[in-house]
Design goal:
The protein is an all-alpha fold and about 325 residues long. Helix content is about 70%, strand content about 0%.
Length: about 325
């Protein structure tokens, strides 16, 4: 399979630093700037420019809480691009967004707040609460977010319990209160995120079977990895693979990395694809492993330059194994 080079996002970040964030909404000017790197990253430049033409910045900026699989599937319906191209594009642009502080201001926020309080609309209240929680469009304000999540819950939004529990658990916008956090999670026990949170609490308390039950009931992407990791620790390989495979379906980077490695250790070349996707999504472990595969020529064509570049990138993320491998192979 074609393995695109994630270093293209460094080129995008450099363009933003030089020309400002506004360049991302000036498609022709952005394309001209990015094409300066096309000699080294020809295919990657093409895909990033396609992403810009599709308005991917706007799509991702205002749906960053949406699962990446939903974003990829949405884009599949409006483009002629393949899954691997879209996963690469979405993951790179999500990282660009995540690395920038966006100067977007919702100028009529007070009017919006007054209106939703009159309407007692749970969805709208939840949306504004998230804006304050993330600091998107307004200055980040956990206390205001907490107040609005409470309002949304009163208006009948069943998905607020996770945020209320999370904020109590971590002391965001309110004093830390683990007991109240657990109460909120239990109130939302039909919600996948609450089940995930309950699983983590049980795991911290050493109640592994209880944690496994919560993770198994949840369809939160993070739960698939936690469930698989417990099975793997117990040497229940098939159960671990089943859980990781579910996480792969929603592009969870930890599941992609774990599942790919399990397959490759069984000499199943299908394991390369999940490793590559995890690399696109920024997994340092997958990036280190892909570097090793490039250097050794195992399941992909040997490429020392790409391999060392992957190890260098993983090392810059703090991956200790990558640092060790760099020292081992840099003299070869």
């Amino acid at each position: 399979m074609k393995i695109y080079d994630v270093r293209i996002k460094d080129c995008v970040k450099k363009i933003i630093e030089e020309k400002g964030q506004g360049i991302l909404w000036q498609k022709e000017e952005f394309a001209d700037a990015l094409n300066n790197y096309s000699l080294k990253y020809y295919e990657e430049c093409y895909l990033i420019n396609r992403a810009m033409e599709m308005g991917m910045i706007d799509i991702l900026l205002f749906s960053h809480h949406v699962n990446i699989s939903d974003q990829v599937h949405l884009l599949e319906t409006i483009s002629d691009l393949d899954e691997d191209e879209l996963v690469f594009m979405v993951s790179q642009m999500r990282d660009v967004i995540g690395q920038n502080q966006w100067n977007i201001e919702i100028v009529n926020m007070q009017e919006t707040l007054d209106e939703i309080k009159k309407l007692m609309n749970p969805e709208a209240t939840h949306a504004v609460a998230l804006a304050y929680f993330d600091g998107l469009g307004v200055e980040q304000d956990y206390e205001k977010a907490y107040e609005l999540f409470e309002l949304a819950e009163q208006y009948g939004d069943p998905t607020c319990q996770y945020y209320l529990g999370y904020m109590n658990e971590n002391g965001l916008g309110t004093e830390e209160n683990l007991e109240l956090a657990k109460d909120y999670y239990l109130q939302g026990k039909d919600d996948d995120q609450c089940l995930y949170a309950l699983g983590l609490l049980s795991k911290k308390e050493g109640k592994e079977d209880e944690a496994l039950d919560y993770f198994h009931k949840s369809h939160d992407a993070r739960s698939f990895y936690e469930e698989g990791a417990i099975h793997l620790e117990r040497n229940e390989i098939q159960e671990a693979k089943n859980a990781f495979a579910q996480g792969c379906d929603v592009y969870d980077e930890s599941c992609l990395d774990a599942y790919g490695k399990l397959l490759l250790r069984e000499n199943d070349e299908k394991g390369l694809k999940p490793i590559v996707y995890a690399y696109y999504l920024g997994s340092s472990d997958a990036t280190e492993y892909l570097g090793y595969l490039f250097i050794t020529g195992n399941v992909i064509e040997k490429n020392m330059e790409r391999g060392m570049a992957c190890l260098d990138l993983a090392a810059s993320m703090g991956n200790e194994k990558a640092k060790e491998l760099e020292k081992k192979y840099e003299t070869i």
